[in-house]
Design brief:
single chain, twelve-stranded antiparallel beta barrel, 12 strands
Length: about 250
């Protein structure tokens, strides 16, 4: 089992390296125009994950698809107790039609949440997360769908513990009242999907409620606040605050 886990980790790392080497040759950045590269940084806060910065970048390979990379510093909040939980990944973004993109990516995690249920020290290869993002941005409407499956790459759980796997997805849709203000609805679900000593899945939270967003008409940044109810019986409500900056 240990040898299998090691091969699995090596394979996941090799896949990330392959994405870099195949899509972006070392000389690409020097040869292409600067306006083909973009980057977004967001600062996020909610009552489950706490505070967590996020960044995403893309490079336009051609007019049909971009190379993408991203990272989440979960360690800013609750993740600090999960072995300094950190996520980094890469993938592609396809321009399907005007204002619609689809981005499949794969991320590698360091920490302890998935491999030991946060009972051990932080390790590289805590887990892997294949994920998909579909984004909508048109003159009057906006929206996003995200789906990610967090699965352990290593089994470091003690005898009384368990590895953990999570399914995380959300969907939101809104209307733009102008270049400054938009509003809509947000639904988000986090589920404990399994593990080495988990017999059945269970809901961590199910959030649903409205959001309001204020955006710079020049496209340099935005701020969004979402809040509402939590359908999980033991929980009361939810709130999520995001401020984003484009570069």
């Amino acid at each position: 089992m240990q040898q299998f886990n090691k091969l699995y980790r090596m394979g996941a790392f090799a896949l990330l390296v392959a994405l870099f080497s195949m899509v972006l040759p070392a000389s690409a950045f020097a040869q292409e125009e600067e306006d083909k590269f973009s980057m977004t940084v967001t600062l996020n806060s909610d009552q489950f994950f706490g505070f967590y910065p996020f960044f995403s970048g893309s490079y336009a390979v051609n007019d049909k698809f971009d190379f993408t990379f991203y990272g989440i510093l979960w360690s800013g909040g609750t993740g600090s107790a999960w072995g300094n939980w950190t996520e980094f990944g890469a993938g592609l973004k396809f321009n399907v039609t005007e204002g619609v993109t689809i981005a499949p990516q794969i991320g590698l995690l360091g920490g302890s949440l998935l491999s030991s249920g946060a009972l051990g020290g932080g390790i590289l290869g805590d887990g892997i997360v294949p994920n998909l993002t579909i984004a909508l941005s048109r003159e009057k409407t906006e929206g996003e769908f995200y789906l990610g499956y967090y699965t352990p790459l290593r089994d470091e759980a003690p005898e009384e513990g368990s590895t953990l796997a999570y399914l995380h997805y959300w969907a939101n849709f809104g209307y733009k009242f102008g270049s400054l203000v938009s509003a809509g609805l947000h639904f988000e679900h986090l589920m404990l999907a399994g593990g080495s000593n988990i017999e059945e899945s269970s809901d961590v939270y199910q959030w649903f409620g409205p959001y309001v967003q204020f955006a710079d008409p020049k496209g340099r940044g935005w701020a969004r606040f979402s809040s509402g109810t939590d359908f999980v019986e033991a929980n009361d409500s939810f709130f999520k605050l995001t401020v984003g900056m484009n570069f």
